[in-house]
Amino acid sequence: MRRPFAAVAVFSTAAAVFSLAGCGSSTGTNVTSFKSLPAAEQASFEASAAAEVEASAGSFVSFNPYGSAFGFFNHVAPRARGIELMVHGQAHSPRFQTSNCTSTETPTNPVDSDNDGVPDTVTINSACAITDTSGSFADTGAVAIGDQTPQSADLDYNASANVVLDINSTSSGSISLNLVGTNQLAEGASSLTNQGAYTLKATIAGNPQGDNGSVKIVANENASYTPTGGALPTNFDLQFPAGNFTLTGNWQYDVNTSKATGNLAFSVATQGSGLAIDPVNCQNNAGHIVSGTVVFSFSDGTKVTATWGSCPIQASTTIS
Predict the structure, then answer these.
(1) pLDDT in tens, 94-131
(2) Which residues contact 78 (CB under 8 A, 6 or more apart)?
(3) Which SS3 state, helix, strand or coil, does residue 54 take?
(4) Domain containing residue 33
(5) What is the Cα–Cα distance from 104 to 215, expressed in whole angstroms?
(6) What is the C-alpha radius of gyration for the chain, rounded to an integer number of angstroms?
(7) 144 lies in a domain?
(8) Which residues are CB-contacts of 49 (< 8 A; sequence separation ≥ 6)?
(9) CA distance 23 to 42
(10) Is residue 97 part of a domain?
C-alpha cells in the first residue's frame, strides 16, 4: 500500500522527550535544549530523524491520500502506540483478545469526477476498540479529503483530520493522544508543493510510577518535489520520475509532566537543491535518496546534520 506524506521527525523527537520524561529523576528534568537531552536520547534522535526524512521523501513519490481509511494520517495510530510503549519502557507486543473496528464514508459512494484517485469530497469517520490482557486501545476520529480540481486529473488535494487515541493499561495508566492537522498538495507546471500543519497533545494519567502530565507538539512544514527524469503523473497510482525533494519546517514542544518540564524547538531544512530522489534505481533506503543533506537546527545552536551519498543504506549523521 502506498504511504501518505509523513510529518518529518515530529514523532521521533516526541519519543525522545517522552522517554526522558519517563526515565527522569524524581526531582524532575528541565527540557529546554537539545543538549539537555541525555547522550543516548541525542543519538536516538540522529538515527530517527534521518529515518523520518527517508520515509517522507519516499512517501512523496509513492503515496495515495485516499489509499486507506485515514489516508494522509494513517501513520499516526501505530506511531502513537509506539510512543506509548517508549513512554513507559515497554517492549512487548500484546496479544489482542477482541477487536472491533468500523469506518463510514460520507457520501457513501464518493465521486471521483476526474478519475485521478482522489474523490471530489469525502469524510471518513472511524472507530476502533481493541482489548488485550493488559488493557484497551481506542482509535476514533474523522478525516475529510477533497479534490481541489475535481474536473482535472492531477495530484491536487486537501485533507484535514481530528484523530483521538486512548490507551489504558494496568502497567501504564491511561494516555490520550489528540492529533489535529491539515494538509494541502498542489501541482504546478513543473513541481508539487505540500503544506502541512499539525498539533499533537498527549495526556498521561493514573501512571503507577507517578509519571503523569502532558506534552504538546506543534509542527508546520513545507515541501516540494521537482521531477528531473520525466513529467509528473496525473494519477497517484502511477510511477513518479526521479526528482529533487525539498523540505523546511518548524516544531515546538511544550512538556509539563511530573518528571520533565520545559520546551524544545527546532527547525529542519534540506540544503542546496534538496535531496536527489530516484524511485526506480535507488532501492537501498526507504526514501530512494541518492544524495543530499538535511540540517536540524535547535534553539540552543545545536545542529544535527544528516547526509546521503551514492544511494546509501543509511545516512551519516553528525552533531555540531
Answers:
(1) 333 445 667 788 999 889 999 888 889 988 887 777 77
(2) none
(3) helix
(4) 10-319
(5) 31
(6) 20
(7) yes
(8) 8, 9, 12, 13, 268, 294, 296, 304, 306, 317
(9) 15
(10) yes
